[in-house]
Amino acid sequence: AGAAGLGAARVDVLVMGGDAGAEGDASAAAKLPGVDKVVTLSHSALSSPVQPETGAAALAALAASGGYSHVVCASTSWGKGLLPRAAALAGVQPVTDVVRFDEGGDAFVRPIYAGNALETVRYAQGAVPEGQPKYISVRTTAFEAVPAEGGAAGVEAAAGPAELEAAAEEQASEFVSAETSAGERPDLGTASVVVSGGRGLKSGDNFHLVEELADALGGAAVGASRAAVDAGFCANDMQVGQTGKIVAPDLYVAVGISGAIQHVAGMKDSKVVVAINKDGEAPIFEVADYGLKADLFEAVPELAEKVKAARA
Ligand SMILES: Cc1cc2nc3c(=O)[nH]c(=O)nc-3n(C[C@H](O)[C@H](O)[C@H](O)COP(=O)(O)OP(=O)(O)OC[C@H]3O[C@@H](n4cnc5c(N)ncnc54)[C@H](O)[C@@H]3O)c2cc1C
């Protein structure tokens, strides 16, 4: 999606991996409309999940030898580990968290001050060494996703660059295990409806109110404010905000959340915001399209019932 605003003449997707899983990813990438070529790189040092040290060495080498103008990566936890490393190897300052491309891809718009301002930056003349691409990470929530089908790109295997071999030998860290919360709810970052709970819920025992409203809305994703996470009401991977996840769903419902700037930084691009708060002066109402000044312990169960009835 990020490549769309770049006005790129050609879009190649790099799929790195050390196992069969990468083949599935490569054929999925080949079906994305707008992709010209999928370049695969298989190497035992790139076994899933690709470690940033080896991944960056491979990416930087392939990006330089392929004559690319830009390397674009999603600003996810993984991308944040990979892209700056690759950029450093290339001697290029990365531009991170881009939300819009201007001037046909020469100017990059990105949030600063926890999303309270947008800055537009451009690479100065000579800032990118000859033969190196610009390194950009994008906030995926700021771009429309392309459909999963419709393209028919070719898939080409790349030879493992010498830099990857060297990085694999020097590799100082090793992947041990990943603990993921395998919930049934959609992923917060991509869900079309998100219901978040805050400190107003008073305790973790009351968090079910938020979950029930999310269920009534057809199985929405559930998020939280940092105060709710810090108080142990819910898991910390549910935090929305400056230091949590950035979400931009079609509908965001904030329950018992005051609307601190650090929280708003993570949800202000939501298309419709609904806030339920008993304090009519709460700043969340400034970003809300619909505000309900009410006690959440009464309003949320009632709303869940009414939504359920309306959808039945
Ligand atoms: C560097 C930094 C980074 C941060 N990053 C984040 C972040 O990523 N995400 C984040 O969320 N915060 C973040 N914060 C914290 C942020 O500043 C706020 O402290 C936090 O968002 C407050 O959470 P809250 O709205 O749930 O709690 P509060 O501010 O305590 O608000 C609770 C709200 O619930 C309402 N309420 C209480 N009882 C009821 C009731 N019965 N019915 C209805 N409403 C009720 C109250 O009126 C109040 O508005 C960060 C702070 C710092 C300094």
TrEMBL record:
Superkingdom of origin: Eukaryota
Transferase listed as a keyword: no
Binding residues annotated for FAD, in chain numbering: 199, 225-226, 239-243, 256-263, 277
PANTHER family xrefs: ELECTRON TRANSFER FLAVOPROTEIN ALPHA (PTHR43153), ELECTRON TRANSFER FLAVOPROTEIN SUBUNIT ALPHA, MITOCHONDRIAL (PTHR43153:SF1)
Pfam families: ETF (PF01012), ETF_alpha (PF00766)
UniProt protein name: Electron transfer flavoprotein alpha/beta-subunit N-terminal domain-containing protein
Gene3D superfamilies membership: HUPs, TPP-binding domain
Keywords: Electron transport, FAD, Flavoprotein, Transport
Subcellular location: Mitochondrion matrix
Species of the source: Prasinoderma singulare
Protein family per UniProt: Belongs to the ETF alpha-subunit/FixB family.
The record's free-text note on cofactor binding: Binds 1 FAD per dimer.
